[in-house]
């Protein structure tokens, strides 16, 4: 049954009603954001809605509503049909079942994350990803990640989570009030900050690693200052994002590009899911910068084997070749944070 609580899932027959949640919601956004939220998310929600059996009794209509969801099938990109409570929050998603009408494939939650990988639910087939992806699926690395592993990045020029978050927020200004996906979120270091900021209408913490997502859930559960009402945990491959084309306002990918099996497929996918004007912000380690002495470069290439460390020029080239515009970046030693926008 549909409830009036969700900006992500809303029965079509209610959209004209004065009780529309966008109109009655006690917004925590400043008026500027509320207007943005009202205009873009409402439009998206209305297009992301409903198939419904014909019934002239309104109350029965609500009970029988089958709702088209914010999440899409990773195989055909058709929006999934959700059965269960609506909303982009942990408990509603956990209690819901999702189905693709076209592929006839069902998706459900495992532990506290929704598994939207192509291999979700398979019993006999297992797939081994490249080592740089597999490494982060380990329970030990997932446990250590926020307990020392990530702090090491500072030695390569990463300014640290608080400063990186501030920089990302600056880049995300045009996407404020919209839906943000934290792709390759790891244990949710930045997803939690984005959700807490109150700047976005919803945050999806997405990763390929089951153990990172379990850690992410543990951190969310322990954090009393974090409301779980606007955050979802999703397992997915960055090269097969489970969202409809043009449905996302902001994509963040912190310290991730070098771990992806194919950065070009990933950036193409990110571009596909962004709406026009949507913003992509990523950070990674550079292979070397223009100031790296020529005799050090081959050495760095040997040390960095196993990861896809790109140069500044390669990252810009990838973004522009996927059709993103307004590219800019900030570099500090091997650290780069870059941004680009969907035209
Ligand atoms: C170094 S961690 C970054 C975590 C966090 N975003 C941060 O800024 O600290 C890289 C993450 O990329 C994820 N990853 C690797 N391959 C992936 C893929 N194919 N799809 C989605 N995430 C992937 C890993 O599971 C890991 O959590």
From TrEMBL:
GO molecular function: S-adenosylmethionine-dependent methyltransferase activity
UniProt GO cellular component terms: plastoglobule
GO biological process entries: methylation
InterPro entries: Methyltransf_11 (IPR013216), SAM-dependent_MTases_sf (IPR029063)
Main location: plastid
Localization annotation: Plastid, Chloroplast, Plastoglobule
Keyword hit for tRNA processing: no
One Pfam family, short name: Methyltransf_11
Domain of life: Eukaryota
Key words, A-Z: Chloroplast, Methyltransferase, Plastid, Transferase, Transit peptide
Domain Methyltransferase type: 181-281
Similarity-based family: Belongs to the methyltransferase superfamily.
Classification via PANTHER family: METHYLTRANSFERASE, OS06G0646000 PROTEIN
Protein name (record): Putative methyltransferase At2g41040, chloroplastic
Provenance organism: Senna tora
């Amino acid at each position: 049954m549909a409830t009036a609580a969700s900006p992500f899932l809303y029965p079509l027959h209610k959209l004209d009603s004065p009780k529309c949640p966008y109109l009655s919601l006690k917004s925590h956004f400043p008026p500027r954001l509320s207007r943005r939220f009202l205009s873009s998310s409402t439009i998206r929600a209305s297009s992301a809605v409903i198939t419904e059996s014909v019934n002239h009794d309104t109350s029965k209509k609500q009970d029988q509503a089958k709702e088209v969801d914010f999440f899409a099938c990773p195989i055909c990109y058709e929006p999934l049909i959700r059965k269960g409570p609506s909303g982009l929050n942990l408990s509603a998603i956990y209690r819901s079942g999702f189905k693709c009408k076209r592929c006839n494939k069902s998706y459900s939650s495992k532990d506290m994350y929704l598994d939207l990988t192509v291999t979700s639910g398979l019993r006999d087939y297992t797939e081994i990803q490249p080592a740089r992806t597999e490494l982060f699926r380990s329970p030990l690395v997932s446990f250590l990640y926020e307990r020392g592993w990530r702090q090491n990045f500072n030695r390569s020029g990463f300014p640290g989570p608080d400063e990186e978050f501030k920089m990302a927020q600056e880049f995300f200004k045009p996407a404020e009030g919209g839906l943000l996906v934290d792709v390759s979120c790891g244990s949710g270091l930045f997803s939690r900050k984005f959700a807490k900021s109150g700047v976005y209408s919803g945050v999806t913490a997405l990763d390929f690693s089951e153990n990172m997502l379990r850690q992410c859930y543990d951190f969310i559960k322990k954090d009393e200052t974090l409301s779980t009402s606007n955050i979802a945990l999703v397992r997915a491959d960055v090269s097969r994002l489970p969202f409809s084309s043009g449905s996302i306002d902001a994509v963040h990918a912190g310290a991730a590009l070098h771990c992806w099996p194919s950065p070009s497929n990933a950036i193409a996918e990110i571009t596909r899911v962004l709406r026009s004007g949507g913003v992509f912000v990523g950070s990674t380690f550079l292979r070397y910068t223009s100031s790296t002495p020529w005799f050090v470069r081959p050495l760095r290439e040997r040390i960095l084997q196993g990861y896809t460390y790109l140069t500044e020029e390669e990252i810009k080239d990838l973004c522009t070749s996927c059709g993103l515009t307004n590219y800019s970046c900030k570099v500090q030693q091997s650290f780069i944070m870059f941004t680009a926008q969907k035209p």
